[in-house]
Fold:
Amino acid sequence: ELKVEQNPLFLSMQEGKNYTIYCNYSTTSDRLYWYRQDPGKSLESLFVLLSNGAVKQEGRLMASLDTKARLSTLHITAAVHDLSATYFCAVDADSNYQLIWGAGTKLIIKP
Amino acid sequence: EAGVVQSPRYKIIEKKQPVAFWCNPISGHNTLYWYRQNLGQGPELLIRYENEEAVDDSQLPKDRFSAERLKGVDSTLKIQPAELGDSAVYLCASSSTLSWADTQYFGPGTRLTVL
Structure:
């Protein structure tokens, strides 16, 4: 059974700092997704990582994938308050479009 | 391009009552998903449609939940009768084999409260 674990589950940080969210999964996968969810809102797609060593960047967020380690990271550079949200990773293990989701990392960035 | 539309946005009912949720996917998206999201957790897939066919409903509690996607476009998810444990946000998502990496696009969700 595929399991997806995120850590930390909760992160409070100051503006301007850097931090990394980790997403571990238990079986091989060829697709990993990162989503953002604001309170009371729906899920917004951030990144799709399709191969080992893939790196995607958008603004202050950068996501990477290591399929050998079964690990993806979401790195936040010089955090700003607007990045406060819950971030989810999701893995498609069998290319059957069934995503297994992590529990989410609630990120609070204080001014 | 319009996103995934869901209604209602909020629903409060008493236990044992029926409830229905409606979803209109992004135009041209042939795959439609219903998820349930409990507070503080990631979404859990309930059912996936390819056009009008339910291709994965293994997680749908069939004793009380039902879904349909007539004509392969809009979809309805029904609960009858509702139980207290059904309180959650019900999310609809859609995707297309033509979209980048089959990315799923989510609607705003319906927040269900069962009293």
Notes: Chain A has a mean pLDDT of 91. DSSP finds no helices and eleven strands in chain A. The two ends of chain A are 41 Å apart (CA to CA).
